Amino acid sequence: MEKDRWVSVLKVIIYTVKFLAGQNLSFRGKNSKLYDQQNGNFLKLIETIAKFNDTISDHITRINRNPSNMPHY
């Protein structure tokens, strides 16, 4: 189950990177915190996907609950 969760998370990240690169859009904004203003296209897109994808939403919740956790990508 943990493996499947990580596969799903990484697929979303890879597709997000491919989309932004394919559209020649910048990834970063002025900061790198989720749900902050001006955090860039990558994080805004991840935030949007999380509204419709329970796995990503859960992943973001885990990150916010323990920000010093192990790598969260």
Please characterize this protein's 3D structure.
The protein is an all-alpha fold. It has one domain. It contains three helices and no strands. Helix 2 packs across helix 3. It is globular. 7% of the residues are buried.
Number of strands: 0
Give the termini distance in whole angstroms. 18 Å
Helix content: 55-70%
Proportion of β residues?
Answer: under 5%
Number of domains: 1
Poorly predicted segments: none
Summarize the topology.
Blueprint: H1 2-22, H2 41-50, H3 54-65
Helix pairs in contact: 1-2, 2-3
Supply the key terms.
single chain; 73 residues; mainly alpha; 59% helix; 0% strand; globular
Q: Would you summarize the structure shown here?
A:
The chain is mainly alpha-helical and 73 residues long. Helix content is 59%, strand content 0%.
